[in-house]
Amino acid sequence: MTSKDTCEVTVVHEEVVGKVQKGLPDVGGMVQIFKALADETRLKIAYSLTLEEQLCVCDVAAVIGSSNATASHHLRYLREQALAKSERKGKMVYYSLADDHVSDLVKIAYDHASEREDEPSDH
Q1: Which residue, 55, 70, 79, 111, could crosslink 59 as a Cys pair with Cβ 3.0–4.6 Å?
Q2: 39 touches 73 (CB < 8 A)
Q3: Which residues pair with 93 in a beta bridge?
Q4: Radius of gyration of the chain (CA)
Q5: Which of 104, 106, 87, 88 is nearest to 96 (CA)?
Q6: Lowest-pLDDT range of 71-75, 88-92, 119-123
Q7: To 10 degrees, the CA torsion angle through 36, 37, 43, 49?
Q8: What separation in angstroms does the CA of 31 have from each of 15, 26, 38, 68, 81?
């Protein structure tokens, strides 16, 4: 029995494999980014910050339906992973995404997920 998801024979294309291995960077930093965004609450926060450039901790808490402490915890984690930045204005702390790369990642993930939902399932 063969699967349509695997090769029927094993043939390693050494030149191609060598080229790819030489071009493959250390992915540790990327792993940390995706781990941070893999949490549903943090991804909701990041997406919210694509809709509104800055949100204070209280607003984030209201958006995600949590306490200020929980929102602050998630925001701090995003900041520690260099995905968000914070700014104190008087008694308020406002958060925004660290840069356009983070915004692009979140938007692209949303677009890709939306496309998948629109496609007919092949199961």
Answers
A1: 55
A2: no
A3: 88
A4: 20
A5: 87
A6: 119-123
A7: 80
A8: 27, 10, 10, 28, 11
> What is the predicted pLDDT for the residue at 63?
98
Q: What angle do CA 117, 114, 79 make, to 5 degrees?
A: 130
Q: Which of 33-42, 52-61, 62-71, 111-120 has the lowest average pLDDT?
A: 111-120
Q: What is the pLDDT of residue 66?
A: 98
- How far is the C-alpha of 14 from the C-alpha of 86, rounded, in Å? 48
- Domains (ranges, CATH) in the chain? 28-118 (1.10.10.10)
- Nearest CA to 109 among 51, 38, 29, 53? 38
What does the pLDDT read at residue 76?
97
Long-range contacts of 47-50 (CB under 8 A, 24+ apart): 47/106, 47/110, 49/84, 49/95, 49/96, 49/97, 49/103, 50/97, 50/103, 50/106, 50/107
